[in-house]
Write a structure and sequence with these properties.
The complex is a heterodimer. Chain A is mostly helical. Helices cover 75% and strands 0% of the residues of chain A. In chain B, 71% of the residues lie in helices and 2% in strands. The chains are: A mainly alpha, B mainly alpha.
């Protein structure tokens, strides 16, 4: 009996928290299909739009060129993942499994970078990007994410967990170091690479300050920074604003629901950097 | 006796450096040099009419210490963190304890709580600004209240902290769930036999056993909260009366460096932020000896 009651209370709590987590998204969705006058009406207060304003979608897509924004965001995310995974696997392997002079000092540098707030890098990074004439370009957006100290740390942990015998066996079979890395060891850290990929994608997609600074042009910027711009321009036109927010987060939410296990574990194992 | 260098050692040295070279070059160019340069710039001032920067010694720091806007921003940031961090940690811990049992819908709840973590803060800020709207917002109209969530200068920073809690709850919870996996089940069985109730079990068994995880979450969350920017930038516009009471340090850094092009002063603000974060972290590292138990 006592157990049933405590179970009941537990479910009530979990359901209440779930509602709190979901309401903002539901409200975003409902508002996106309303008319402006429906959003400015309190007596009666409109919850569900009378007629679903599908043209809000077309208006917003036209006004902000979302195809372009998606292409930019995807380009930035894709390249950052590629660079981060390649460079971090190489360095992660070296730090985990090779012995060489200077290794500890270099690894200390990696750890040190992880502890410094990113704002300390931004002004000089911006100056470099503008000297290289990369403002308003995909490479400018990618720039600070070409290498990943955090990814190096994550992949090093993954390589440390692999059994030593594998490497010995490969060596006895005549594999040199790059071959051992490429064919034997790297494929075994696939799940850590996926975790790093997801982390990199989420981090880059969410970032606001860097794209605002380095790609201020409407046609060159990312989803997050375009939302910030609209937010300033549209003021009270909430249906359009919510439609824009919806368009920019639905694909990520769908990906998340499909790959939720990888997402949650990926971000959780990568710990603390978001 | 001189050690002979084997072929293997030579090869490890060679390939080791080749493998770390891209990462290390990147870190030096993209992080180490910029960090030194930012600190250097905090001692400089941009010359007039596009002339290069001039060394001005401690002038920027003197100015920062006397700048009431910086002090207010520091205080705003601390207020935000004081609300966001403890609430998001305690609520997340309780939720993690509930979800650590084998219950129906466990993974569904976990998925829902974690959801804000995969959405851009820009989009989250927009919808919350709309929820908080004092005339037409959902919150005021559902509860029939009239609260100026974002334009009351005494309230706005806490309204922002609520969004911070909402955003990060699921993430903290997932980290705690991972920590709870390590706690042996028989500890609880023994405690139940001794007659300890759920609350006592939480305080005397769960918290001490996952104290390293709690410590990690606290340290990283405080660092994160001290860098709050996106929410404030998106939700508080220039004509909001709560403007001065919500500006954070990173917001000031952005404003000085990129809107007013006073990069030297912006650099000084961010160095101050670094120092504050380092002090908070060191305090926690010292304090942890009293309550964090490593096995």
């Amino acid at each position: 009996m006592k157990k049933t009651i405590s179970n009941f209370i537990m479910y009530i709590i979990l359901i209440l928290v779930s509602i709190t987590m979901l309401v903002p998204f539901v409200w975003m969705f409902l508002t996106a299909f309303k008319t402006v006058s429906e959003t400015m009406q309190i007596d009666p207060f409109v919850i569900i739009p009378k007629v679903w304003q599908v043209q809000n979608f077309e208006n917003v897509i036209k006004a902000m060129d979302f195809v372009r924004l998606y292409a930019n965001t995807l380009g930035m995310v894709g390249l950052r993942i590629l660079f981060a995974v390649v460079t971090a696997s190489l360095s992660g392997y070296a730090f985990a499994r090779l012995n060489f002079k200077g290794k500890n000092v270099m690894f200390a540098l990696v750890l040190f970078q992880m502890m410094i707030p990113v704002q300390l890098f931004i002004i000089p990074q911006y100056v470099m990007v503008s000297n290289l004439h990369l403002t308003n370009s995909i490479m400018g957006l990618v720039f600070p994410g070409i290498v990943s100290a955090f990814g190096t740390f994550l992949l090093r942990q993954a390589f440390l967990q692999l059994p030593r015998d594998l490497e010995e066996a490969a060596r006895l079979d005549g594999c040199n170091i790059p071959q051992t890395f490429m064919y034997i060891m790297a494929p075994l850290t696939r799940s850590a690479m996926v975790a790093l990929g997801i982390f990199t994608a989420v981090f880059a997609y969410k970032d606001l300050m860097w794209p605002m600074i380095v790609a201020p042009d409407n046609r060159a910027t990312t989803l997050a920074s375009a939302l910030a711009k609209m937010n300033g321009q549209y003021q009270q036109k909430y249906p359009e604003l919510m439609m824009a927010a919806l368009i920019s987060c639905v694909p990520m939410i769908i990906l998340y629901i499909i790959f939720q296990k990888q997402f949650i574990e990926g971000i959780a194992t990568s710990g603390g950097k978001l | 006796m001189k050690k002979k260098i084997t072929a293997r050692e030579k090869s490890e040295f060679f390939w080791g450096w080749i493998f770390i070279l891209p990462t290390m070059l990147g870190l030096i160019v993209l992080n180490i040099y910029p960090m030194i340069d930012t600190i250097k710039q905090s001692f400089c001032k941009m010359g007039d009419f596009g002339r290069g920067s001039q060394f001005v010694g401690l002038d920027n720091y003197k100015k920062v210490l006397g700048d009431s806007e910086v002090w207010q921003a520091l205080w705003n940031t601390i207020k935000y963190a004081i609300i966001e961090v403890p609430f998001s940690v305690v609520i997340a811990l309780l939720l993690a304890v509930l979800l650590n049992k084998k219950i129906k819908g466990r993974s569904m709840f976990r998925t829902i709580f974690f959801l804000p973590m995969v959405v851009a803060p820009a989009a989250i800020a927009m919808v919350w600004k709309w929820l908080y709207n004092s005339n037409f917002g959902l919150i005021n109209n559902i509860f029939h209240i009239k609260v100026n969530w974002l334009s009351n200068p005494n309230l706005a920073i806490y309204s922002l902290a609520i969004i911070g809690i909402w955003s990060v709850l699921g993430y903290n919870m997932v980290l705690f769930l991972a920590g709870l996996q390590e706690v042996p089940k028989d500890y609880y069985e023994a405690a139940a036999l001794d007659g300890a109730n759920g609350f006592n079990q939480l305080i005397h068994i769960t918290v001490p056993l996952i104290s390293p995880t709690i410590f990690f979450v606290l340290v990283t969350r405080i660092i994160g909260a001290m860098q709050v920017f996106d929410l404030i930038y998106m939700m508080i516009d220039l004509n909001n009366p709560a403007w001065k009471k919500t500006e954070s340090l990173v917001f000031l850094f952005y404003k000085y460096s990129f809107e007013q092009n006073k990069k030297g002063y912006g650099a000084t603000v961010v160095v101050v932020l670094l120092v504050v974060i380092m002090i908070l972290t060191v305090i926690q590292l010292i304090g942890q000896k009293k309550w964090v138990h490593y096995e």
